[in-house]
Each structure stands twice: as C-alpha cells, then as structure tokens.
Amino acid sequence: MKVNVKILIIAMLFILPMTAHSNAAGLAGNEWGIDKPVEQFIKFSYNGKLSGFSGCNNFFGLYTPKEASNESEGTIKIGPLAATRKGCIPSVMKAEFEFLKQLENVRSYKRSSHHLELFNDKGKRLLHRRWRDFD
Description:
- By secondary structure, the protein is of the alpha+beta class.
- The protein has helices at about 1-20, 90-105, and strands spanning about 30-35, 40-45, 50-55, 60-70, 75-85, 110, 115-120, 125-130.
- Strands 1-2-3-4-5-6-7-8 form an eight-stranded antiparallel barrel.
- The model is unreliable at about 5-25 (pLDDT under 50).
C-alpha cells in the first residue's frame, strides 16, 4: 500500500504541472514582441516560466494560467519577475520599468493568430504584442 501511495504522489508531481500549464497552450512556446519605440519581447515556456528582453535588460520569472475558456483567451498571473541590472539611457530605462510593471499587473489575455493582448484585473488592455517567431 505504501508503495502505491508513493507512486501516485510521484506521478502527480509530474502530471499536475503539465496539465496546469496546458491551459495556456496558446501562449507557451511562443515569443511576442515589439520593435519600436524600444525592442521588447516575452517568451512563455511550457513549464510555467517566462523570459524576455525589456529594452535594456533580460528578464525572467513565472506565470500561472488560472483558467482558460480556450487556447485564445484566459486568466493568468505573471510574476514575480527578476531582471539583469544593466543601465541604459533614461528613456529606455523608463520604457523598461513601465513594461515590467505592466507585466506584473496582467490578469488575463486574448490571443489572435498573430497578436497577444494582455489585460489587468479591470479588463484594461496593458500590452499588445505581435507574434515574433512565425515564419
């Protein structure tokens, strides 16, 4: 009996993270960004991690999909985020600060074929990014 419980617990540790992040399958594995006025992009991984470039520094962190009605939209929590600490000109640093702050306030998303919109808890659009890694 103890062996079966151990096997069940081990199986759950591997299966639950995969199913939790399958809700955001429309995000995972894709890179979303803009090039102007400052290059910024976000890449969502299948393991609940995200990374990207915020204009001056690389950043990384976690995301947790809460619920999804389909692959095109759902609720999500981003953060905490961390970034490298390189300094750039003030206008780029300001854009970077705003971008990272907005990411941590994201609570839902909508994805179309080549666009990603990220919204706060009141439904206000915070960010709009284009799919960068399509051929």
